[in-house]
Structures are given as structure tokens and as C-alpha cells.
């Protein structure tokens, strides 16, 4: 039960990477750029979280679906994994939409 | 309402960066696919409404009721939607700029960044910070991890990145550069490298400044200033004799001082003696390294402690400094004096060059290479002594 949230996030991350791999969208298109975008996204979102925690806005929940390990006050171990998932999901959605819209545009032109 | 303010602030950062990237990209014909941003953004909003509600229902996290607006979509506070909105504005702009830049390859930039940051030297700044912080707090916490990561990579990238960009003109004439001891960076990568230094350093510095005290803020400011002032155009401390060695030593001692001040350590005489010894060691290390470059530096019109006082005097100066470091360590409390022995191999390594002339100063490169590996050996000895100290204090 304690692993529920973390394993769900990992599952989500793996699914995003599988989509990426299958359609060569992000890491499988330009791994260096993808790594930089991912790193930038995670740092940006972590700073946001940290500012929210420092301001007393975000509080860690008491759910039994989490391991209960805190990386920092009010920052559960699972949070960075969630941010990785959010970044990957955003980029797979964007690069995937670009691909679909381009194909759609081509079909209309022919 | 405070959460709304926070969300607007970070959203504004995302929009500003995206606009800057789009403007910079427009001259390079880099364009963000806006319809795709809309499609992805809409999908993300729907996903957020569903999964945020689910996550809040499962009590994975909560909010201070007094600080949020109270407007909710499902269970999700409306402010939460700023997260996916910011990522879908910022990240595609970044991605588009990186993948469609006509002259820049991110894989090449990363490869250059790795070489430029001198991985063999990473530990030389991360260790002083980590050891100082850990010995003062006796605890591994998030601040230790953030600071150690900062002093392991971004700090070194800034220190050597700025250096390699502004030294390009003189380095190109120096056969020694382009490997373990220095890297040659192609001019097309100069500006991107400076940007990479900036964006990798600022977030860490912001956190370290925010988490610390006025004392640690001063230490951080000195540390950061020394990194920039050493080689950036206009300041060029590396070309001012003696200021060059002092600044270089600050590069390695200041991470320890930042660690100590962040940990709120009290600066007693034993600690000051240790820092003084470390500082003398750093001055000697820099001055000794400058000897081998006397000829190329003079040809390039660059000054250094060695080009001004000459090879022989510099070697004498370094031996005196290493000796002073050893004597200062002898004056510290047990088991500090044990570390004094570390000065001996450095002095033995330099003594054969007491009669070196400016013409054959390049031959000291052999001793410089030994010096780099000697540092690992002395780092090991210093660590053992720290563990011994740790056990004495505890027992």
C-alpha cells in the first residue's frame, strides 16, 4: 500500500517513455535537448514547490499510499517523480500533437 | 490568496522565458507550434482536473485553507492549474529553440559543458562544502544535498566555463589546453556556454540564499563574485599578480565557509586555523600551476603571479605557503595536527624545481600532473582524520 503512489507514478513515467520510444517524439528524437528540457522543467517546478512549502501553502498529506519518506520538510519522496511525469506528459502531448497536426495538414493539402 | 500570488509569479516567469526564447528564435526561424500547444494544454487541463481531484481525495497532499482562494474545479484548487499551464508554455518553447537552432547542437553543447567543467576537479569544491556542512550539523538533510550538487557540477561549470570563454584567445596558443587541464571551446559555443552557466547556477544560488543566514549570504556572495571576477572581461583577477592566487584559493575555501555558515557553525580559533591552512594551500596550488604557463602567458600578454615575480621566486613562494599551511595545522587541536603531514609531499614535489628558470618553466608541468593526483591522496588523508575526529568527539 505504501508503494501505491510511487509505483503508479513510475508506471505513468514508463508509459510516457514507451510512447516516446514508439513514435520517436522526445528522448528518442533528440536525447540531449530532451534531457535539458526535462532538467529545466524539474528544477523550475521544484523551485515552485519549495516556494509554496516555504510560504506554508503546501502540506504533505497523511495518505497510506505514500512511503512517508520526506526529502525536505513537507516534500515527500514521491514529489520529484510526479514532476518528472508532468514534464514527460507535457512534452509527449506537445510533440505528439505537432506530429498529428502536421500529418493532418499534409493530408488536406494532397 | 497567497497561493494565487505564487502561481501568478511562477506563471509570469514561464511566460517571460517563453517570450524571450520566441523572440530570440524568430530571427533564426524557430517557431513554436501554437495549435499543438493548445491541444496539449487542453488535454493537460482536463488531466489535471481529474487527477488532482483524485490525488487530493486520496490525501496525498493538502493546502493551508487560509492561503488559497477556495475556488475549486472538482477538488482541485484553481491555482493548481497554473502548474500545467506554465509547463505547456515554457517547455515547448524551450524544446523548439533547442531542436531547431540552425547552428547549435545540444548534444555538442552538453559534451563541451562536461569537458569544460573539469570532472576530475568536481570533488575539490563539493567535498569542502559537504564535509564542512556535515561536520557542523552532523546530519544529512536536503540543504546538504542541494549544496553538494551545486558545488559538484554547476559551480565548476561556471568557474571553468567563464574562464574558458574569456581565455579563448590565449588558450589557442597554449598546447597544454584541450585535455585534463583545460578545454578549448569553439567560439560558436561561447554564448550558449555562458547562458548554460547562468541557468544552472541561478536556481541553486536562489535556494541557498533563501535557506541561509546573513552570514551564509555574505559567504555565498564572496564565493560567487570570486568565480566571476577571476576570468570575466573587465575584472580579470587572474591577470593581477597575487590577487590571482588569492581568488583561486577562494574558489576552493569559500564552499567550505558557505557550508559552515549555512550550518550555523561557531568559528573558534581551531576552525579559523584550519581554514587559514586550507587557504594557504590553495594560494600555493594556484601559484605553482601558474609557473608552467609563464611562456605562453607572456606571449599572449597575460599576467600572473608567476610572470611577474618569475619562475624561481614563485616556486619558493609556493613552498613557503605549503609550509605555512602545515604549521597552521600543527597549531590546531587534536587530531588536526595529523593533517600537517599532508604538506610534506607537496613540498617534496616542488623542491626539485627550486632552480627552474623562466625559459624551462614548462618542465614543471610534470610536477603539476603529479600534484593533481596528490590531491586525491591528501583528500583521503584529510577524510580519515575527519572520521577520527568524528569518533573522538562522539566517544
TrEMBL record, chain B:
Entry keyword Isomerase: yes
Gene3D superfamilies: UbiA prenyltransferase
Pfam families the record matches: UbiA
Metabolic or biological pathway: Carotenoid biosynthesis
TM annotation in the entry: 6-24, 36-61, 81-98, 119-136, 142-162, 193-211, 217-235, 300-322, 334-354, 374-392
Location in or out of the cell: Membrane
NCBIfam families in UniProt: CarR_dom_SF, PRK13105.1
Name of the protein this chain belongs to: Lycopene cyclase domain-containing protein
Amino acid at each position: 500500500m505504501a508503494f501505491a503512489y510511487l509505483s503508479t507514478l513510475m508506471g505513468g513515467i514508463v508509459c510516457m517513455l514507451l510512447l516516446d520510444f514508439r513514435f520517436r517524439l522526445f528522448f528518442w528524437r533528440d536525447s540531449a535537448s530532451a534531457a535539458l528540457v526535462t532538467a529545466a522543467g524539474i528544477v523550475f517546478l521544484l523551485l515552485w514547490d519549495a516556494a509554496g512549502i516555504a510560504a506554508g501553502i503546501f502540506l504533505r498529506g497523511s495518505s497510506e499510499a505514500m512511503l512517508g519518506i520526506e526529502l525536505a520538510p513537507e516534500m515527500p519522496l514521491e514529489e520529484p517523480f510526479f514532476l518528472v511525469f508532468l514534464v514527460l506528459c507535457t512534452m509527449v502531448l506537445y510533440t505528439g500533437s505537432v506530429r498529428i497536426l502536421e500529418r493532418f495538414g499534409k493530408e488536406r493539402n494532397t | 490568496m497567497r497561493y494565487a500570488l505564487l502561481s501568478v509569479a511562477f506563471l509570469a516567469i514561464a511566460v517571460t522565458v517563453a517570450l524571450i526564447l520566441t523572440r530570440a528564435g524568430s530571427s533564426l526561424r524557430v517557431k513554436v507550434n501554437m495549435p499543438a500547444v493548445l491541444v496539449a494544454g487542453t488535454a493537460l487541463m482536463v488531466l489535471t482536473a481529474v487527477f488532482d481531484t483524485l490525488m487530493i481525495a486520496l490525501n496525498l497532499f493538502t493546502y493551508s485553507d487560509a492561503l488559497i482562494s477556495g475556488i475549486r474545479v472538482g477538488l482541485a484548487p484553481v491555482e493548481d492549474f497554473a502548474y500545467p499551464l506554465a509547463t505547456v508554455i515554457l517547455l515547448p518553447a524551450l524544446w523548439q529553440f533547442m531542436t531547431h537552432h540552425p547552428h547549435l547542437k545540444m548534444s555538442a553543447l552538453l559534451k563541451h559543458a562536461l569537458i569544460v567543467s573539469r570532472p576530475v576537479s568536481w570533488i575539490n569544491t563539493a567535498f569542502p562544502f559537504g564535509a564542512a556542512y556535515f561536520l557542523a550539523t552532523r546530519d544529512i538533510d536536503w540543504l546538504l544535498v542541494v549544496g553538494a550538487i551545486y558545488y559538484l557540477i554547476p559551480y565548476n561549470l561556471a568557474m571553468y566555463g567563464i574562464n574558458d570563454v574569456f581565455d579563448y584567445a590565449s588558450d589557442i596558443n597554449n598546447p597544454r589546453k584541450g585535455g585534463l587541464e583545460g578545454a578549448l571551446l569553439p567560439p560558436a559555443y561561447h554564448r550558449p556556454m555562458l547562458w548554460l552557466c547562468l541557468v544552472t547556477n541561478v536556481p541553486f544560488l536562489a535556494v541557498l540564499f533563501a535557506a541561509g543566514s546573513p552570514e551564509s549570504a555574505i559567504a555565498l556572495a564572496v564565493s560567487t563574485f570570486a568565480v566571476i571576477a577571476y576570468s570575466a572581461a573587465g575584472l580579470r583577477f587572474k591577470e593581477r599578480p597575487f590577487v590571482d592566487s588569492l581568488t583561486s584559493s577562494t574558489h576552493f575555501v569559500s564552499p567550505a565557509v558557505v557550508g559552515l555558515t549555512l550550518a550555523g557553525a561557531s568559528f573558534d580559533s581551531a576552525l579559523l586555523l584550519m581554514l587559514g591552512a586550507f587557504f594557504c594551500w590553495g594560494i600555493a596550488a594556484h601559484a605553482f600551476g601558474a609557473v608552467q604557463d609563464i611562456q605562453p602567458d607572456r606571449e599572449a600578454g597575460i599576467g600572473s603571479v608567476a610572470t611577474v615575480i618569475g619562475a624561481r621566486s614563485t616556486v619558493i613562494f609556493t613552498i613557503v605557503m605549503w609550509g605555512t599551511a602545515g604549521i597552521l595545522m600543527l597549531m590546531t587541536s587534536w587530531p588536526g595536527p595529523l593533517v600537517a603531514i599532508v604538506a610534506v609531499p607537496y613540498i617534496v614535489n616542488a623542491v626539485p624545481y627550486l632552480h627552474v628558470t623562466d625559459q624551462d618553466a614548462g618542465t614543471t608541468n610534470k610536477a603539476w600532473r603529479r600534484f593533481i593526483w596528490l590531491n586525491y591522496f591528501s583528500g583521503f588523508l584529510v577524510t580519515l582524520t575527519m572520521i577520527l575526529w568524528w569518533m573522538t568527539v562522539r566517544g
